[in-house]
Amino acid sequence: MKALMYTGIGNLEIQHIKKPDGPYLVRVIGCGICGTDLKTFTVGHHFFKPPTILGHEFVAQLVQVPNTSSHAVGDTVVVAPYFECGECTSCRSGLPQLCSDKHYVSSGAFCEYVALPDDYEAGIIPLPDGTDALVFTLVEPLACVLNGIDQLRMRPSSTALVIGGGPMGVLFALYFQDIGVPVTVVEPNAYRRALIRGWGIECIEPTEADYSRHDQIIITVNQAALIADAVRHVANGGTVLAFSGLKRHDTFEADGYAIHYRQVTVTGCSGFALSHFQNAYSMIAANPAHYEKLITHRLPLEEGLEAFTMLKAGNAFKILLQP
Known about the structure:
The chain has about 325 residues and is an alpha/beta fold. Helices cover about 30% and strands about 25% of the residues.
């Protein structure tokens, strides 16, 4: 099969490799490029050693299913790249997103086919007829957003400030817009600001941000210093969510006065649970046009290197690659 192989920092190439086999086999229809993919391409990642296939935000068509499956060959589906075991300490403690024994797909999805193990029934959701299947590539990133939302202390009067107008920051903003919570996005890139404003979302330059007007601040940029600023200036009783991944040794100074006397909370999140994935699917299925605007480019797999370069330059939001 054809695959876009990550062969080292800054390098991607089309290779022809053996088609996988497994109890479930899916033909990839489209896969989104996520922030982790871009980070791996740009600076490397300890989880993804080259040569390997990246990509985990994908929709596909089932071409092989086990006899015990409720799914059928030909079904168009969105596939969770992983889901929790339900039995480990984290799962039993109500933290399935931190599961220590997750079920995984066989490989990344920047390719033509992906195999799934026989215990993957719960990680497959059939898509409704009459909608563009590719919008459901946003289910996985929206699931991560919903995990982040669960960490906030929202109130009926809450207003949100999202630091960073990249794809994940905009997904937060689209979510808040969808449920009627006032939201402002902070983004230095003029191209992105113009698009975000065009979607009816307030979007400002960093110099215009007033943290004190908001009690929910979401940091979608991996700069630890931004967390310290947000804790210091967020509204009383506010929550600061460190959403973007930080390096293991990154630190920031926490304003003790804000935490103690103003009851400010700082928290983080990583990944998603299967319930987040299912809820994200339902939200997109109910309002696909609202979320589909985030997808600015759909390109063939052969243009993968150009797509990653475009994202690195900040000249796109979500790019989908199609085999």
